[in-house]
Design brief:
Layout (H helix, E strand, L loop, with lengths): L14 E3 L4 H10 L3 E4 L14 E4 L7 E4 L4 E5 L4 H10 L2 E2 L11 H6 L16 E7 L5 E5 L5 H5 L7 E8 L1 E2 L2 E11 H6 L1 H5 L4 E5 L6 E9 L12 E2 L23 E2 L30 H10 L1 H8 L2 H4 L8
Parallel strand pairs: 1-3, 2-3
Antiparallel strand pairs: 4-5, 5-9, 6-10, 7-8, 7-9, 11-13, 11-14, 11-15, 12-13
Amino acid sequence: MLTNWAGNHTYAAGRVHSPESVDELRALVARLPRVRALGTRHSFTDLADSTGDLVSTADLPREVEVDSDGRQVRVSGGLRYGDLAEALANRGWALATMASLPHISVAGAVATGTHGSGDRTGSLAAAVAGVELVDARGELRSVRRGDADFEGYVVALGALGVTTHVTLDVEPTYDVRQDLWTDLSWDAAAEHFDDLTSSAYSVSLFTDWVSGAVQQVWLKSRATEPPADLWGARPAARTLHMLAGADVAAVTGQGGVPGPWHRRLPHFRMEFTPSRGEELQSEYLVPRTAAATAVERLRALAPGSRRCSRSPRCARSPPTTCG
């Protein structure tokens, strides 16, 4: 049985196809009555499932074509971001941002609105300059930035066809340093929320919601130094993993040591399993002006989270069923 990355969903589709050419993909899509694209199976829901057939683009030819004059790269949609990043870095080019996991496919990550993290950087989809896909009739379609409804083609959740190639903006390679802080009080985080999220090029907060503090703050900086003080938080004295007890060999370099962009922007190293593979995640988009309110309401749910964490039944269920 085929399951997603977390193991909480078993795919209902009867068959998974892995074409080795675009022509083979076109013939499959034209022939099958119901088909859906399957990426690296990182979704925690049945978003990429189908009552018909699934088709993976992972076996299509690997292509990374850099246009140095246009500062863009045309890449196979099934390629993983970590593999693309390595290829770009070897040629002196870089992406503006990456998700925490480099193991996800380019087309899948873009289509689902997967994000980086930073006040001054867009999501992965913001870098998309072009999309090539096979539509329901098996025909090739190509759209570019500026075309009508282009944004809808980019973050399409797989509903418009099977993406074969994506064109992304690139920039010259750069270094990033990563500094971690621990035990930032929620009161301080709420009071200085805008300053906190703009304190580095990329900012991530990790909390268990029940201890009254943000256990870890991950700051990734490019040209500027990180803040010397973080409202009472303490600089991390050693390399940390955001999951208690997990192997720190899996995370990217910390301690303020600069390194290549593709080895600092993700939280996890490409060569390691990114987590225990059992946690379930939910993501919500709220207006920036409502961020502090959203955090406070989540904090109000903390007592239920504490009870849930002590219940074997709840520990195996999605968080929405607990508390």
